[in-house]
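To the team - zinc ion complex, inputs and output below.
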Amino acid sequence: MNSILLSLYHRLPAPVRSLAASLRGFHLLLWRYGPETHQLVKEALEREAWSREQWQAWQRSRLAYVLHRAATTVPYYRKQWEERRRRGDRASWEYLENWPILEKEPLRETPEAFIATDCDVKRMFHLHTSGTTGKALDLWRTRKTNQAWYALFEARCRKWYGVSRQDRWAILGGQLVVPVQQRRPPFWVWNMALNQLYMSSYHLAPDLIPYYLDALRGYHIKYLWGYTSSLYALAKEALNLNRHDLKMAVVITNAEPVFDYQRGTIAEAFGCPVRENYGMAEIAVSASECQAGKLHLWPEVGIVEILKGDQPVANGNPGDLVCTGLLNADMPLIRYRVGDRGTLGSDFKNAPCACGRFLPVLAAVEGRVDDVLYTRDGRRVGRLDPVFKKQLPICEAQIIQESLDRVRVRFVPAPDYCPEAGRSIIERLKARMGEVEVILEQVDVVPRTQNGKFRAVICNLSAEERCHLQNQAT
Ligand SMILES: [Zn+2]
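Output:
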């Protein structure tokens, strides 16, 4: 929504805002679901019985189609291959490894050059994402691709957990559904088209959270979906208030990693499992967590490589996620560096996962490439959640690397906070980073990004410094 429309929307009375959200919802409904949806969901679930070899054969054949289409009908790639030919480069575009890595910048600068020339962009669904760093992306999909994507989502983000899109659900996301300065409920809109209560992530102050909890009960919400940090804030306050009337079927997190302490608190507050979902608007990779706690990749969406620079890392080691989208062949992203780091799990060669599926596994997603700290000897320190051990009397915390020798921890203390808890944070950080100065900064709230996301780790070293350290380490 542009800013003029948004300010008009914010001036509407609350019931009219819900009506506006519902109208938008009906528009989205037509783009997301159609007569084939039921069949598509059924087929997606049936494919989960496929063996590793069946998936590999399927991906090979789909990849051949996508690469051919990209090289011959997508202006950005066509130009790239023509230039290579002119330089006498005879590499074949039929092999994925011959394609260069696609960084975000060309996609940001000339997004329309990535659309196949036989598509009519006016008849495609347009997404404008703000991104965690505030740099926008424009993306397009046909109705068919969008419906295929939402069918997968229905199968693997809802059916797996025993819920469906017909159930009433609440989402805590980054949309400004209510003006930020508002201090009186409702802090949500009811979208009747999607059976969805869209709740604001920007009003989760402890004194306002009771209104949220009442709304979840009043609207008979069956499951929750949204930013991990927002769900955690809600859960923590529900436990503080001793509310035991909010039982959900499942809580599905997205957009941010889930730390153990968050998972435990959310599960306890809502009396249900917490399941992680990983994906992005570019639909080059998606994964969801099964009941055995494994993050399964969706092979129909894309092929995942784990690289360091442009070289593959040995299996089981972390690196940058570089993904080739298989679902959206009308705006194909080939070997696209998505901006997150992760590790592939080992394949299910003979026996399936404990959940019975053969789908491949993403062993870990460490979050954004920038969300790591660096030590003077060139080590990258990822997964920092053990710094905040369970039962630590803090509400939330953020680690910021200001220089190689200085790290700041912003934290919101819980009522039972004591200096010993602060000392524990310092000790645990030093145990991972070595001798660094750790500054503890007590705050009322940890600032969110422009689109309402919480960043647990921020590294403010310059790109040059990081590059230098990485080279030194190898
Ligand atoms: Zn599984």
